[in-house]
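User: Teach me something about this protein's shape.
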Amino acid sequence: MFDPVKFIEEVKPQLEQIVDGKAIAAVSGGVDSTTAAALAYRILGDKVIPVMIDTGFLREREAEKVKSMVGNLMPLQVVDVSEKFISELEGISDAEEKRKKFRELFYNTLSELVKKYNAKYLIQGTIAADWVETQGGIKTQHNVLVQLGIDTERMWGFKVVEPLADLYKNEVRDLARYLGLPKEIYNRQPFPGPGLLVRIVGKVTKEKLELVRKATKVVEKYLDSMDYSQYFAVIFESTSSYEPEISKGVGCDVYTYTAKATGVKGDVRAYGRIAKVECNNKDYEKLRKVMEKITSYDITHVTVKVGEDNPEGKYTIGIRAVLTQDFMTAEFAKIDWEFLEKMESEISSLSKNIKEVVYDITTKPPATIEFE
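Assistant: First, the predicted structure itself:
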């Protein structure tokens, strides 16, 4: 059983010994980085400068909301570099290339802040699941550096301090609650450092970014009251082809998209196709068996079609909702079908360019929780 009091007692002397000068604490808005910053500020006080970088890939009014929520615990500064990030990442399609380019831009920005404030350290919210997935080659977490042998002092001029590196998500939430972070933070949706960037599957465009931002707002509005571990929207091109062999094997019409997504098969990274199932079957246990058969092919994410309101549209919005304790494995949530249809209707009304809405019915493994 995780004990936040004991954890703080153990980490306090370590932080005090390591951080002998000023430190920048990077806050993404997610529970991990916000908790790491709050912990460091509580222990080290004004040595710590909490900073949130607005990359342009945040959710609607994200930076403003986070600053307001943590205002009584630490003096969070927001640095807006959204134009630079969007212009540099626009047009990139490959998932790993996106993550690595984001990492480069992110740490270059932090390097500039370190110099500005004459700091020597960067405190960040890397947790166990981050470095396990990166070291395992499943996907590059933008905040995993020293575990890969990256010399941050030589490259960016700071030493990395990761006080939560041995904790899992449920333990971080317990710590956040103890530190006095508001419920909106400790129960907050996990949000990847690259943000909506990794929820734009395939080529990054400004249009896709704005549509997935709007779709995310709809999904969160409907699912915030549910007790799901994580839920979000993704966007990708609707181009797909019918798969007669797979369809025959599962008794449903199966299509595969040209877009690909990250998965994990046999404890290693898999980069495979996204499938769509069309059938009258709304029984989740039966759909789970369909998913298990389909992912025996080079397919990492299986979705079921919820509805199509704009046949001439060019984008698919995927909804993902999962239940998990440690985020190393996850079950898909069994959302009431009528509820899904209400979400689909509202999402489709956002733009004529949204052709359809699908729901992801893949466990982890073989899918990762995020698509990229």
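Now, about its shape. Confidence is low (pLDDT under 50) at residues 134-145. The first strand starts at residue 23 and ends at 27. If you'd like, I can walk through any region in more detail.
User: That's plenty for now, thanks!
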